[in-house]
Specification:
heterodimer, A: mainly alpha, two-stranded antiparallel sheet, B: Rossmann fold, seven-stranded antiparallel β-sheet, 18 strands, 56% helix
Amino acid sequence: MMAEIVTPYTSQDLFLTRAFDDEFANQLVSRSVDGRQPFPRKIDVWWVAIVVGAAIGHRSRLPASDKLTKFNTGAILGREPWRVTNLELLALASEGEDIISKPSDVVRIGHEYAMTGLDWLADKVRGSSQPTITLMTALAEILPPK
Amino acid sequence: MQLKYAEFHNFKLLENVRLEFSTNRSLPLTVIRAENGSGKTSVLWALLWGFYGTRGLPAGAHELRLTSSAAPIDAPVDIQVIVEFERDDGHGKTAYRMIRTVQETPRGGDRFERGPVKVRLLRRTPAGLVDVDGDPEAVVAKFLPPRLKSIFFTDGDDVQRFISGESIHGRQNRVHEAIRALLGLDSLGVARDDVENVVAKLRRETAKSAGSDLESAEKHLSEITEAIATKTTELDALTERRSRIASEKAAIQKELNEVRGIGNIDEINAEIKSREGELARLESAEDAILTSMRIAINSQDASWALASESLLSGYDILNGLADRRIIPGTSIEVLTDRLDIGTCICGTDISDGQSARAHVETLRSEQRKVSESRSRQTQTFHAARMGRATYQGQLEDRTDFAHRRTELLTQYAENRDAIKNAGLRIEVLKEKRAGIDEERVRTLASRLENAERKLTDVSESIGRLEGSLADLEDRAKLATDAYEKAERASKVNQTLRTKRLVAEDLKTLISNTLSVLESQYVERVSTRMNDMFMEVVGSDPELAGAVFRRVCLSDGFDIMVHTIGDGHLDPDFEVNGASQRALTLSFIWALMEVSGQTAPRIIDTPLGMTAGGVKQRMVEAITRPPSESDPPFQVVLLLTRSELRDIETLLEQRAGATQTLSSNKDYPVDLTHDWKVEYPVIRACACNIRQFCDVCQRRYDDEHGLIARGG
């Protein structure tokens, strides 16, 4: 079941912007378990960027391919299949019920949200020595009111 | 005698301090809370100076300046101590006020000039205060004999001298002197010496009347007796000198320990270690909180919380399809069934070769394409339904990401504060440790070495003198035999001989009386000391109390600790600190009770080295209100915060007055508030043992459960 969920996406390439990757990868991503960096992998940066973009409610156009850097393929999503489900829900909400049969469009929509999210993340964590705390604190700005 | 209040003006750092003492019979305790360096010893000295002048101060302190070491050079300072007390004169209580004043001018370093001392003793009468007739110091000496001062005004460490010291002989002498002084046996000793002189005079006269042989024998005996007296005086002087040097050495050692912080450095190091351990635990907790945050940020919960609007919107689309039964799709299965049967639902023949069959097959092919999409929608719908249900459950339970985020940030902030405080405290402690005055340490170490050398020299001289005396005593015995032999062979004046024999009998009688009284008092002191000691530690298994069978004073005036199994322990080395403190306080208390003196008992830092049950029982024993048949007494305990910890309730039950002394030298390391005074000074406030105020508040007072006075 889980493998089936991700199957349509395994061949999809996943990107971050090169500028974001160059500036923030070391600051935000670490496999260390101490939590001082908020993300263990780049797929997690990508996913949280999508969620942030969706929270803001804005999709940005993808830049030219030379300004992007591929960090993985959709196969990586198999480790957290719920992300595929949520990605599809976001796509459904954005472009209607037929989008679900077009994985490349689903991923495109994800990327467009991610572009918005990456800009927001960059703005918040730039220069921070405690990015986990900075990010955790900044999320208050985009959390829906209780 | 009971103290009512005391005022200290410019005595050391006690610039303007007034202390009230409890005179309530059923609340005999006065507590003065003060940390190290906050004036406890100054209060003790100021009271001694107030009553007896500089002669009353401990050995080695007579020549110390009385003003603050920070007082400006060449500016005269008026020092005054006022003590109001009351005593029962046999026909009711009378209040007195002792006022001692002197002007001192600091001249730099330890040098100073001191003007004439003015002493007044006033008695309160219905008409007001009037001067008491006679020399005020002599009158006060009758009320509170100076020989008793070291018993009634003492510090916790000082009382240890009864069980510790250079030699057993020294300890025995100190116990013996204390017993004689407190029980008033000194005068009997003087009478015995007087009669001894009379015996010698009569022997001389007898010999003179009986011819040259006896005269020669008497002369020889007299020379030896005089030599013994001279050597004994020398020995007494040397013994006193040794005692004084030992006291000086102890005072230097104490100051050195304070300056080096040896006593404190252990505490500081222990606290640094403890705070560093706490810091490591807090840093590890911070890592755990950050890890929890990372997990939270990357969780499905966070996605649902942040993008709930879009996710729910996507879910609603799928839910709508399900409501309309578009998903899950079943048309392919129905069409396939019909093709297999060969009859459409409407009844048309769709068997092989029929034109309608091709239409149904085309319909099934189209449905297959749509179905892939429906199947995917169905799959996503089921997965999303679970995610949505989880999210909604979290919202209801308030365990959703938004709440979790607030909770983690709060934990992080609190933990950060704790890390900051622990780090600050470690920094402060390290600064404190680094602030030890090395120059002063060198000076004191040199003085200590000097005192030790002098002590060795004096001890050697005493040893030589004791040898000479033993030799002289042997020779005196031989000379006495020779004299008696010569006397029997001579024709002596019988009247003179009879007088001498009577005087000798009288001397024997006085000596025996002194001995009997001493042994009776020793017995009573010994019994009372044992009762109190066993009450305090005897039943405490943690203190190996089970091994103590009894404590007593030996005939040789030694404090003995007997163990079960008929063994005994050296109280100086083989008894733990808490039991030593209990033992010496029991001795002092027993002496005071047996003597019947009603002077105030003022003890500085009595509970050092004690803790737990022993501390509780010791305070219980020394502050217990007198029974109706006993005279009232007054006990003043000068205690640090750590000494009074865990016994607050008992102290409150026994104390009729409580005050706190603080020194601005402790700001900002330990004291919280800046008094805005630019020179060192000690102040008193009315805070009791559970309170703090802007004058006395110390770091961690609130952590120890103290509350703001008036707050």
